[in-house]
């Protein structure tokens, strides 16, 4: 992750001592490739168009020069307090993460630099008092920032000095093009602009024309995913649907998968199907998808990062490509027309699990369904092996998904620095003993059960998010106790499936810890917290144990087959 040796270290970039302290506190030993290139140029005042993938350290790449600029202005003479920097993000979740990162970087100059979060899950009125104090930096989605500009609770025309467009390609594909255009009309003529995008497509280029002035173009030569010594990627071609469920059951129930995992599925019903299936085996998992209220999604993420959950079943339903995402002269109606799919499905257009959001300490990403594109694969798999940590990705494919998997394999093989996906070695006979139970569990998770579970969860989460909002504002500690991985109870729950008798455990694995045997610390009120050490420990080893490995570790000789 660190840049080449010839690049400047943080200490040689002319950064304020307070920022260097924060960087050290965060454990950032050296700049990442994008940081090494972008920070010196941004400090010179240049506009920047940077291609930076999520996880590349791009927040630091624009956050450090942004904070340095503010510290310099505020330190020079008595200047009036004003909003001098604006960071536009495509989703509330990403915005909150950016706010967190900026506040961490500004930890030793928090009095001098205040960062306002317009991504908090509250209305315009609740955010007004924060803006009245004229924070130095404002972070928000274009829609929310524009709403404040139009309501005169925010004014940038005479004060803005630095504009950041984070995940610019997503800003456009989420239908914010028109808002950005309207917003640009309310900015001063001269300001520095930094644009970060995972891809450079024609729409991003058009945005570049609109916002940036003679920018430096940065494309750090860096593979889109970490190399094989950090990220191990496997694929398993399954003959039938049942095999996917069987394998996942074996991985989780037999403790073959160590650490926390994101399980990606293709559609929303499958999200609940998988959750209910796991529930049959007593495996708790949160569903995370665009239909849940924004506050629930943010809460699930926060709790996952706190180590409260082990598994999240997530969808990454991509919004359809828009015919014209770049600002045109259509007025605000254009945006409404631009994102109809999300609205018509009752989903939040600002939602995006696979992009940008920083899940922490994800040991493995399981693509339970093959993602629809190479981009989607990269964005899903990019949730593990973040920063310097190792990770594993496993993609399960059915015959009809083989072509999509082959396209992903081919694309990765063609990219410099990328390694081909390895076939996941599995001795299928070893897990055959579980097949009957899996079939039983799959039978219980009927279409009707999925529908009911989906409705129940959404109803409950809406209740949580609306009725309890005020309560949690006053009692933030109580929020920790609210769990999102409670069983949803499909039509028929079969308690016998929860416990795996020893005769069903493959001989080579008997005597090796299973998840239910792992001790969990209970939170007051019933929540369970994973031991912090286990999260850290998973970072050092391959979380996907193979049977070969398990055999090697087994202490007792395997009993003869009965
Ligand atoms: P980002 O791409 O900004 O979302 O950052 C991804 C992760 O990388 C975050 O957890 C950062 O804390 C971490 N990170 C950013 N810069 C560095 C660095 N120079 N060294 C180590 N980790 C970093």
Keywords:
alpha/beta; disordered C terminus; Rossmann fold; 562 residues; 12% strand
Record the SSE blueprint.
Elements: H1 17-25, H2 33-43, E1 48-51, H3 58-76, E2 85-88, H4 92-105, E3 115-117, H5 124-132, E4 137-140, H6 142-150, E5 162-165, H7 168-173, H8 177-184, E6 192-197, H9 202-211, E7 216-218, E8 231-237, H10 241-253, E9 261-265, H11 268-280, E10 286-288, H12 294-305, E11 311-315, H13 333-338, H14 340-344, E12 364-367, H15 374-381, E13 391-397, H16 402-413, E14 422-423, H17 428-431, H18 435-444, H19 447-467, H20 469-474, H21 476-479, E15 521-522, E16 528-529, H22 532-538, H23 547-553
Parallel strand pairs: 1-6, 1-7, 2-4, 2-5, 3-4, 5-6, 8-13, 8-14, 9-11, 9-12, 10-11, 12-13
Antiparallel strand pairs: 15-16
The protein binds adenosine monophosphate (AMP).
Residues 1, 26, 28, 31-32, 35, 54-60, 358, 386-388 line the site of adenosine monophosphate.
Please, could you describe this protein's structure?
This protein is α/β, with parallel strands linked by helices and about 550 residues long. About 40% of the residues lie in helices and about 10% in strands. It has two domains: about 5-220, P-loop containing nucleotide triphosphate hydrolases (Rossmann fold, 3-Layer(aba) Sandwich); about 235-320 and about 345-445 and about 490-495, 3-Layer(aba) Sandwich (Rossmann fold), CATH 3.40.50.300. It has helices at about 15-25, 35-45, 60-75, 90-105, 125-130, 140-150, 170-175, 175-185, 200-210, 240-255, 270-280, 295-305, 335-340, 340-345, 375-380, 400-415, 430, 435-445, 445-465, 470-475, 475-480, 530-540, 545-555, and strands at about 50, 85-90, 115, 135-140, 160-165, 190-195, 215-220, 230-235, 260-265, 285-290, 310-315, 365, 390-395, 420-425, 520, 530. A seven-stranded parallel β-sheet has the order 3-4-2-5-6-1-7, sandwiched between helices. Helix 3 (about 60-75) packs across helix 4 (about 90-105) and helix 6 (about 140-150) packs across helix 8 (about 175-185). It is globular and about 75 Å long. Residues about 320-345, about 515-540 and about 545-560 have low confidence and may be disordered. The structure holds adenosine monophosphate. Adenosine monophosphate binds near residues 31, 32, 54, 55 and 386.
